[in-house]
Radical SAM core domain-containing protein (Nelumbo nucifera), 365 residues
Amino acid sequence: MALRSVFDEGVIRSEFEKAGIDTQFIPLIWKYVLQNPNRELDEVPSLPSAAYPLLRSKFRSSTSTINSIVESNDNVTTKLLIRLQNGAFIEAVIMRYDTRLGTYGGKPRPGGLRSTLCISSQFCATGSMGLKSNLSSGEIVEQLVHACRLSHIRNVVFMGMGEPLNNYIAVVEAIRTMTGFPFQLSPKKITVSTVGIIHAINKLHSDLPNVNLAVSLHAPVQDIRCQIMPAARAFPLERLMDTLKNYQKNSQQKIFIEYIMLNGVNDEEKHAHQLGKLLETFQVVVNLIPFNPIGSLSPFKSSNEQAVKSFQKILRGTYGIRTTIRKQMGQDISGACGQLVVNLPDKELIRSSGLTTDIEDLCAG
């Protein structure tokens, strides 16, 4: 049987409890592993004697390894290609920002340098991007462990491979680990992106208070949304908006709306007005995302710069909705939105199967 990650919090806690070992030692083990890469669990100091054979027989300090590290030409994006112990690949992307650049509300921005980690919650179980398998909570946390050894991570976004809310239990467990010792990330610096899994959104705030919710909306009406994302058929827009209204009422948090700009599909002025009317009663931040075409995988094309700016102007000026345009980072290393694990070494370009490809399989958020 494959050994589990020492960062699989639920599993290691259960094993410690069964063995009568104080679970307060678990965060100390994590701290040692984080600070001492390539060391064995036998070397963790000051544990009860019963802990060592248990750790040795059932856990590994890391079940994943970094297969490659690729830096973008501008040195602000780093792509980690991570190999899981079952041989599958996932990617995590480190994005570095200087929050002092530009202005906000006509005033200089506060802040400084920061790093955001985009991580995956599922992986491709076959040679296509369609069939997903869940990562364990430990495999999710290990992406942060690998990244922390390269950069000081302040923010984490679940916008990599997979639908986080379809791996709900592991994602919740991983985030609780990330916000505890020794990582101690602020919940307010973690964002979970979803296509709109209604039953999971309904319980997200109670399970993860203060964590940010981002919704991949991508269209202001249901038929266009289904054209872009076939998975949206299971989550009618009207029901989704009612769910978001309840979520915002309970959480008192703004919601981030992700909107991929697709030429001639959802980027016209009428679409901007439809979106504005849909969102005008919400506290939201709309993030307009230039689409990254991936070879022949997608029939969609990116909107031109003027269309994106006009769309932003309508949302801001007519509806008073805070609207940003996502800065494209890491396109030269296929680390931008929609390019994760498409260009694996020795991996054939995914062949067209005649099926409609969900844009969420091509663009993670």
